[in-house]
Amino acid sequence: MGFSEFSPKQKQVLTWWVPGNPNAKYDAILCDGAVRSGKTMAMGVSFFLWAMSCFREERFGICGKTIAALRRNVLGEVLPKLEELGASWKEKRTENLLTVTMRGRENRFYIFGGRDESSASLIQGITFAGVLLDEAALMPRSFVEQACARCSVAGSRLWFNCNPAGPNHWLYREWIQQAGTRNCLRLRFTMEDNPSLTPAIRERYRRLYSGVFYKRYILGEWVQAEGRVYDFFTADMAAEVPKGEGAEWYISCDYGTVNPTSMGLWGRFGETWYRVQEFYFSSRRENRQLTDEEYADALENLAGGREIRAVIVDPSAASFQETLRRRGIRVRKADNDVLSGIRLTADALKTGKMRICSTCADCLREMDEYVWDLSGGGKDRVKKENDHAMDDMRYFAATVLGNRERGGFAAHAVSRKRM
User: Fold this and answer.
1) Distance between terminal CA atoms of the chain?
2) 345: which residues sit within 8 A by CB, 6+ positions away?
3) Residues in Cβ contact with 392 at an 8 Å cutoff, skipping those fewer than 6 apart
4) DSSP assignment, residue 6?
């Protein structure tokens, strides 16, 4: 494949770093998108050409999920193209070191596999002039961030490529959604950006996938693909907040210290319960923690002066329950049978007994990201990720709706004007 055979998007990748190019102002490039879209080849060739044109006697990192995958998918494709451009190379496999010589310059490229969290230690202590992270979405965040932190040579740049994962993946949130803040050039690829694919091959790939898999692998969108718990729920099912006064009110709460705390305000309008407002706080996201008293203040603010019949609380949150009781707030420990609660929640959402309002952004986000653990060995269990609003919603369904179905739950209104 000669340069003239590259697509416009691939040429953009090949030349973004060249002095005088409008994109040369960026510190990083991230190419994501569809399978077989030609991003890996363009990224690999461009990375080596940049390194050999701008540096000499420097060290670089090339990282992937495994070293074997890097050699097969990146080096095996890119190095022959470099040879055509006049480069020579030699590899010391025992050291995972590739030395490249081109136009009188020589640089060293170290190869790393980012298989799991322990891999971050492999890359500590080395200084790079740049790093290429192939299939970055498959590597642990700790490894990727450690690789980026190694790039302290003047003029160093970061190079990412990947296929999409779920919409809550840290790479999507921290790099794609914040590309401007990161001074990162983000380019999204489709199969039309790969001139080596014939129309017939493109069509064959399109026929392989459907639904969310089609969106992810063909359209290159960051959507949840595997095993959604509430797979019947779509964004257009979100409701507007009903007008008028609700007949009764509850708050459900999943309490966390390091993990997020989620609270939902539920009001009954007719025969339907609406989650009309929410409070969602992630100490990791905000880089600070709240005390039990501060969470209790947030809960009372969420109540907004309404008469709350009870606060349904995570049964493990003993200290928070006690804080609420000291304020005169009626607390009820949540029914925490996970599978039964999911069934009750799903039934209530399908039949319209429960509805989530568009004002509850974090709850709606988690509806897309709450998935079954497919590695459970045949056991039905959910992944303990993106489940905080899901847990507080489940607590409400199981403890309020579930008990009412069984003919119980004689709760009395909280006699406190602030609530």
Assistant:
1) 70
2) 230, 354, 393, 394, 397, 398
3) 252, 253, 254, 262, 263, 264, 312, 314
4) S
What Å distances lie between residue 360 and 230, 279, 289, CA to CA?
Answer: 16, 8, 22
Q: Any idea which residue has 């039934």 for tokens?
A: 347
The separation between CA 399 and the C-alpha centre of its own chain, rounded to angstroms, equals: 31
Tell me if residue 63 falls in helix, strand or coil. strand
User: Consecutive sets of 10 residues in the chain, 419 residues long: mean pLDDT of each?
Assistant: 74 97 98 94 96 97 92 92 94 94 96 81 90 93 93 97 86 95 97 94 84 79 78 88 94 92 97 97 87 96 96 94 96 91 91 96 92 66 89 96 58 38
Judge residue 92's burial from the number of C-beta atoms within 10 Å of its C-beta, 0-12 exposed, 13-18 middle, 19 or more buried.
Answer: exposed
Q: Side chain identity at 179, as an amino acid letter?
A: A
The whole-angstrom separation of Cα 369 and Cα 223 is 9
CA–CA dist 355, 270 (Å, integer): 12
- Measured CA to CA, the distance from residue 60 to residue 372 in angstroms comes to 39
Number of residues written out for the chain: 419
Alpha carbons 371 and 225: distance in angstroms, whole number: 9
For 289, the token pair is 């923690």
Where residue 95 falls (left for φ over 0; alpha for ψ -120 to 50; beta otherwise) is alpha
Cβ-proximal residues to 286 (8 Å cutoff; 6+ apart), any chain? none
181 exposed, middle or buried (CB, 10 Å; 0-12, 13-18, 19+)?
Answer: exposed
Within 10 angstroms of residue 127's Cβ, the number of other Cβ atoms is 12
241-266 pLDDT tens trace: 999 999 999 999 999 988 899 999 99
What's the count of helices (H) and strands (E) in the chain, helices before strands? 15, 14
Query: Which H/E stretch holds residue 315?
Result: none
Helix (H) or strand (E) holding 3: none
Helices 39-54 and 8-15, interaxial angle, to 10°? 20
β-bridge partners, 131: 61, 158
The token duo for 40 is 């890996």
Distance CA 37, CA 192 (A): 7
Tokens of 139: 């590597």
3-state secondary structure of 369: helix
